[in-house]
Amino acid sequence: MRDTNRAWYFAARPDGEPDADSFELRETERPEPTSGELLVRVNYLSVDPYMRGRMRDTESYAEPWDVGDILKGGIVGEVVESESDQYDTGDLVTGEGTWADYSVVDADDVAPVDPTVADLPAYLGVLGMPGRTAYFGLLDVGEPKPGDTVVVSGAAGAVGSVVGQIAKLNGCRVVGFAGSDEKTEWLTEDLGFDAAINYKTTDDYRTALDEVAPGGVDVYFDNVGGPITDAVFTKLNVDARVAVCGQIAHYNDEDVPMGPRKLPMLIAPRAKVQGLLVGDYATRFGEASERLATWVATGDLSHRETVVDGLENAPDAFLGLFSGDNIGKQVVQVSTPSS
Amino acid sequence: MRDTNRAWYFAARPDGEPDADSFELRETERPEPTSGELLVRVNYLSVDPYMRGRMRDTESYAEPWDVGDILKGGIVGEVVESESDQYDTGDLVTGEGTWADYSVVDADDVAPVDPTVADLPAYLGVLGMPGRTAYFGLLDVGEPKPGDTVVVSGAAGAVGSVVGQIAKLNGCRVVGFAGSDEKTEWLTEDLGFDAAINYKTTDDYRTALDEVAPGGVDVYFDNVGGPITDAVFTKLNVDARVAVCGQIAHYNDEDVPMGPRKLPMLIAPRAKVQGLLVGDYATRFGEASERLATWVATGDLSHRETVVDGLENAPDAFLGLFSGDNIGKQVVQVSTPSS
């Protein structure tokens, strides 16, 4: 018999706010790669807000998790068994794996990781799916022009922190909403945001925006929804663009949430509001990865990861996303990289 | 002293639903054109939903009316005095004038009218601002492709009726929402809509859409807002486009109206929602006018006007827009054309 493997399984669909009852850690036999596959020892596991959608029993862009399924997510790890010519044991790879100590992946579905470019967790953040989401969402949907005022909600998260910095590289004035003074200080002092609003200690977002974005809003990159978005929509300039990347404020709602109707607000500014999924840009991932890596190397793009230690704490790391525990990208360290 | 002139003035800003108290008919001296101007005997006057916005004391795309101002609007009429080389007395022109028997206009701001192409009221509808709004809103914002399913709210109105027919010319399946059986029959029997839903006698718009648009919605041209729009948003296909042209259901709301939050609905279909003002396409009005006139001439584009007789009834004609009294374009006949 092969060695054992710990893995998290989907135990129950949550109603509203998920909790530990949705997760079950099991010890099973370590999986075995077949032809074209790799067995990867997971070093880091990604937990992401979009996974809340996979907990629902409805078809959507991400395949729903069935109760009893092993949980899936982005990983970085080391190849320990290879049934593919593409990778040798010892190689570092990233791609979609499982919430487990060891994960079997198809060699065609992973990408190599170069630890000299950035630390491994960065491959789940700025150099991974969140970084690419920020890149295409801001540039292709938001279409920022120099001099534009760009507002970002969830600005200290994995996507928002990259959005704001790319907007600065584009010559924009950048304002971020985030949920703590530590976060807003990171945005303005380390990432170069022009202003940041702590939405938990600010009463009136519209007045706050009048102060830091007196010329109105040209681009709004929305990761959050709710009252922040309600306020920003009252400040849209003519020809404003809104990229709807996430709506984390509403992911745990069981009923359709109600709020101020926004369509009447779009006519006078002729604003454009567009939903965004990074998968639509798959043919251009190489472009994004190359530019993001260059900006990281030159220091134009700072990044930060919040690391929770131990596979056993993965559910807590996921649940913490909804209370904003993370600064930058939230990852789980499952094992220590061997080199 | 010159002859007299009857004209409507803005008497009071309404709260909520406007009524006759906002309008005052006065008899004054007939205005006199100065250099470059024309005195036009008004034959037909246009009343339009967007005018409700001009009754508010807020800057917007259309200049607000001040209390005491003479009311403005589109007119078709006959030049009776000319202080311009561009037009002679007896010429027919259209442009922005006043709610009056006689209106002074700048010769540079009006366009000639050819009564052999269409009857005069059509120049305030299919061949006027509403027709151009339909043309650019559908083609430039809605971007219809053959085989797309296009849904139109306010489908029997001045704009919606043209939108649906242009969508048919583009090879689309077209579904309209309208407020009476007479209207829905007009849409399907005379205008070639594939289906029409009487929103006043239908309880469940989502189920109704499932029947007539089983493949979902690719383009939604929204003139109305409210529950119709709430239902259509649940049916948006991947890459759907929503043109927000009007929101007549909300024009009389005094507070910001509440409704189901729609931004979370945009992510999975990556839908685009865009506000639209026809004035942005001013440099291409010639293109639209030429094509619309051709389609009218060939019979590809049907049109209908609801004519209220008498300047004294202009406020009633305007107020009737909000209860859907009109089929096609609502106009007021102020005088009989002299030829």
From TrEMBL, chains A, B:
The keyword Oxidoreductase applies. Residues 19-332 form the Enoyl reductase (ER) domain. This is Oxidoreductase. The keyword Protein biosynthesis does not apply. InterPro entries: ADH-like_C, ADH_N_2, ER, GroES-like_sf, MDR_fam, NAD(P)-bd_dom_sf. One of its GO terms (molecular function) is oxidoreductase activity, acting on the CH-CH group of donors, NAD or NADP as acceptor. SMART domains: PKS_ER. Keywords: Oxidoreductase. Pfam families: ADH_N_2, ADH_zinc_N. Coiled coil: none annotated.
